[in-house]
Amino acid sequence: MAKIGLKWLFCTIYRTFVSNFLKMIAEIITIGDELLIGQVVDTNSAWLGKILSDNGIRVRQIISISDDREHILMTLNERVGRVELILITGGLGPTKDDITKSVLCEFFDTSLVLNHAALEKIEEFFISRALPMTHINSQQAMLPEACIPIPNENGTARGMWFEKDGTIIISMPGVPFEMKPMVSNYVIPEIKKRFDLPVILHKTILTHGIGESFLSDLVETWEMSIDKRIKVAYLPQPGVVRVRLSCTGNSQEEVDSLLGKAEFDFIQIAGKYVFGFDDENLENILFHRLKECNKTLSVAESCTGGYLSHLITSIPGSSSIYKGGVVAYSNEVKRTFLGVNEETLQKYGAVSEQTVHEMAEGIRNRMETDFGIGISGIAGPDGGTTEKPVGTVCIAVSAKEKLIVKTFNFGHLRDNNIRRAALSAIYLLLEQLVKD
Question: What pLDDT shows up at residue 14?
């Protein structure tokens, strides 16, 4: 009896845990040879992973497979009955290479039948576009008898909802603008009706000026002391380390409270490196800060080749704070357009704090802006010396009565050096604005 009682207690506790925290586990399958050979980038999985996670559904695995009957069948056989949800995208087009629908018929032991509602919608689709509907298009209205059709607001291939051995299997087109409305408007609402999903929230803290390993060391005590329901992930990019906090709980209030405390404690330790949160980025923050204080900016770039200007001008409305810039790649342009002294170039070189100082002041005066940025460096992969190795970048931020000049060494990767230089320039200006 004692053994039976312990076993019953263990099972009850386990079921309660699963019920509270793992109510739905999902896997994502993308189908298409074009994904495997790199011809098309799989953006569907990233989008699906985010929307599922945001709605309390844990994604266990994402895989891409070929347009091959045996491969599709094997993949489904391995997964159906082991997870609660499988989302499939791809292979539902009208051409002969799109075999997903016929393979699903085989897997679910069903056959294709004409869906009159789907046929009517397809006819309306072609009439609205003044296009002839061919026989191959009408075949899109042939759907597996065992499925629940999912409306397609932007195309002719309907989604299909199946259920087998405790698993919901949903097949959708691979075209993102067709698939996304299906998930947002039908799949997620329907799943929410059937499952009591937990609350999962993510908070991302954005840092600059510190590497991933150094940041991890700095906040090690914090990471070990936070609530165990919070999972921490470090997501490095050139010039930025994002720290993502993910928390699962039974209510919005509970999760908000846990994440709020963790975020507050993190900032107490590493606040000087924090510049924003979640979907913010340095260029957007700079834009809003300059706009708030009614200040303008111009830039003189060398090694970044216009990338800093690109980041700033990618923001709608940036013309209100950004007057313009110049890519001063040669010493001649530095001299003639920016007014850098020949003596400075000869004595200190193009990559020097003295040169970027004059570049920043030159562009600020020429454009008549409140701030000017000068950047010069050795992006690589060649051109470095013992004194100035590849990755050496000098940046100056010039205002009427203030100047910040700093030298960095970012490493040997050209693209990383360009991005890190541009972001560092933005960060230096933000520091100037905070001090003001």
Answer: 39
